[in-house]
Amino acid sequence: LPVYPEAPLCNPRGLTPLGRYVVNQLADRGMIIETDHFSVKARREALAILEGRSYSGLITSHSWGDATARRRLQNLGGVVAPYANESPTYAEEWAEARATRPVGPLFGVGYGSDTNGLGAQAGPRPGASADRPVIYPYRTFDGGTVMDRSRSGTKVWDVNTDGAANYGLFPDWVEDLRRIAGPQIVTDMANGAEAYLQMWARARA
Questions:
Q1: What is the domain class of 17-119+182-204 according to CATH?
Q2: How far apart are CA 40 and CA 69, in angstroms?
Q3: pLDDT digits (tens, 9 = 90+) for 27-66
Q4: What DSSP string describes the chain?
Q5: 16-49 in b/e burial notation, b at 16+ Cβ within 10 A?
Q6: What is the bridge-based pairing of β-strands 58-60 and 33-34?
Q7: CA distance 194 to 202
Q8: CB of 65 closer than 8 Å to CB of 74
Q9: pLDDT tens digits for the chain (205 residues)?
Q10: Among residues 184, 155, 190, 152, which one has the least CA distance to residue 171?
Q11: 30 φ, ψ (degrees, to nearest 5)
Q12: Burial, 180: exposed, middle or buried (Cβ in 10 Å; 0-12, 13-18, 19+)?
């Protein structure tokens, strides 16, 4: 195995000529470019290309990028999907994205769990049991469904103590976001799919 020095580490490589060609070809075809798997240098270079083209078919899918890169992506009309961290961290990233959103495009956010990459899922919010806990049963933000603690055999799950320990707890995680950040955060999450589709339509126009 390679032995790496102490962090922070940064891939020094940017876009190759082939990489620049690919970025332009993706934009020519109206395809969506996900920026979270570029190196820092390559992302900067790709954003410069896309700014020159005023191309909006962009998404940051799970928070790999700094605030400057996110603002550049948003200013082009791209979509932000913060990593599905513990609810206070996600709410902070949502608030930053909302505060820097451009005038014009519909604002909506997604969330990236990165479960296909074996990414860690949100643990319980520190102090949740005493500070604005999710109270079961609760009604989903749209009023359509009453949710109680999910069960797996004899195990009873509670987002206040278990976090998003499985897929079935994601609705509870969203409710926890609503409890700590208010109704606007879930409204913006509900608008995420439409914001994505509108971004894709702009990219193909």
A1: alpha beta
A2: 9
A3: 999 999 999 999 999 999 999 999 999 999 999 999 888 8
A4: -----SSP--------HHHHHHHHHHHHTT--EE-TTS-HHHHHHHHHHHHHHT---EEE-SS-S-HHHHHHHHHTT-EE--B--SHHHHHHHHHHHHHTPPSSSPP-B--B--GGGTPPPP-PPTTTTTSS---SSEE-TTSS-EE---EETTEE--HHHH-S-SGGGHHHHHHHHHHHH-HHHHHHHHTHHHHHHHHHHHHH-
A5: eeebbeebbebbeeeebbbbbebeeebbbbbbeb
A6: parallel
A7: 12
A8: no
A9: 677 778 777 788 899 999 999 999 999 999 999 999 999 999 999 999 999 999 999 999 998 888 999 999 999 999 999 999 999 999 999 999 999 999 999 999 999 998 877 788 999 999 999 999 999 999 999 999 999 999 999 999 999 999 999 999 999 999 999 999 999 999 999 999 999 999 999 999 8
A10: 190
A11: 65, 30
A12: middle
Residue type, 138: Y
Q: What is the pTM of this model?
A: 0.90
CA-CA-CA-CA dihedral for 140, 141, 142, 148, to nearest 10:
10
For 124, the token pair is: 């319980």
- In the chain, which residues fall in CATH 3.20.20.140? 17-119+182-204
User: Do 178 and 140 touch, CB atoms closer than 8 A?
Assistant: no
